[in-house]
Amino acid sequence: MANEFKSGFVTFIGRPNVGKSTLMNRLIGQKIAITSSKPQTTRNRIQTVYTDERGQIIFLDTPGINKAKNKLGNYMLQVAERTLNEVDVVLWLVEPSTFIGGGEKYIIEQLSKIKTPIILVINKIDTVEEKDILEAIDTYKDVCEFAEIIPVSALKGKNTDDVIDSIYKYLDEGPMYFDEDTITDQPERQICAELIREKALRLLSQEIPHGIAVVIDAMKVRRHGHIVDIDATIVCERDSHKGIIIGKQGSMLKKIGTQARIEMENLLDMKVNLQLWVKVKKDWRDSDMLLKNYGYDK
Ligand code: GDP
Ligand code: K
Ligand code: MG
């Protein structure tokens, strides 16, 4: 019999900065460039999709499981607990340490209530020595019932393939939920806007970037040829900011555009013709209407 196609849902938990985003990018990044992405009904919970010949893994975001301080916190906690119970595998990321802090203890408490297989991922092993890894394993191995314990470096890509292999052990036969070329439910437009914002954040001085938003005005694939025309606007709060964003004879805007374009071409797997504009909208951050218009209505 041919191998069955497996699929299932996986969520990451772990303290801030333990490397969840880095690991997620690493796991899905090695495979595919986006050529299509369709919004789904469960969209706000789905983050990324990994597909290979064995099956499909959908990585979900879990709202933080920090102690609840108010009603909203309580609600988030319930959602988080439900997510932990509903997924097929939980990946818990920790640092290679022999100290189990308060943040970890709270997570352990939550994990003790669920029946989902838990894979302990000890991340950032590139920062310590072999013996420290062993000590960390020793520290953690009995705090929960783990399906697997995997030391990795998400940053360097060390042992990250083992994470995928281990996840598959705990998935059953299932459907292909998304096209094999889907890697995220985020619309391409939004990712392209974020790429421009990221470049602006990195290239501009401190004060301006917080006052900017990026809007994709148009995104059209040319009918013949492998090229997409993208028009985008950087919105800022002051005329003086506009001058800085554009730079001497357009030099700053050109830099932002070039860096963003290169990443868009990788992402879309197409040539990109990017036209960037800069507009001033005073106080856009205080205007519900404008916030909505710029995609921040959540
Ligand atoms: P998150 O808050 O859990 O999503 O953590 P991030 O993925 O944003 O990572 C936080 C920081 O840790 C970033 O500066 C990463 O570059 C760094 N980081 C993540 N994984 C590793 C790793 O394997 N080794 C090292 N040295 N740094 C890492
Ligand atoms: K972070
Ligand atoms: Mg993160």
Automatic annotation (TrEMBL):
Q: Which Pfam family, just one, is annotated for this protein? A: KH_2
Please give the chief subcellular localization of this protein.
Answer: cytoplasm
Q: What does this protein do?
A: An essential GTPase that binds both GDP and GTP, with rapid nucleotide exchange. Plays a role in 16S rRNA processing and 30S ribosomal subunit biogenesis and possibly also in cell cycle regulation and energy metabolism.
Q: Name where it's found.
A: Cytoplasm; Cell membrane
Which residues lie within the region annotated G5? 152-154
For region G1, the annotated ranges are 14-21
GO molecular function terms noted in the UniProt entry: GTP binding; GTPase activity; ribosomal small subunit binding; small ribosomal subunit rRNA binding
**One term under GO cellular component:** cytosol
Provide the assembly information: Monomer.
Q: Hey, which family's this protein in?
A: Belongs to the TRAFAC class TrmE-Era-EngA-EngB-Septin-like GTPase superfamily. Era GTPase family.
User: What sequence ranges are listed for the domain KH type-2?
Assistant: 204-282
Domain Era-type G, by residue range, is: 6-173
List, alphabetically, the HAMAP family matched: GTPase_Era
**Where do the segments described as G3 lie?**
61-64
Q: Where in this protein does the record put region G4?
A: 123-126
Q: What is this protein called?
A: GTPase Era
Gene, per the UniProt record? era
Q: Which organism is it from?
A: Anaerostipes hadrus
Q: Where does GTP bind?
A: 14-21, 61-65, 123-126
Q: Where is this region: G2?
A: 40-44
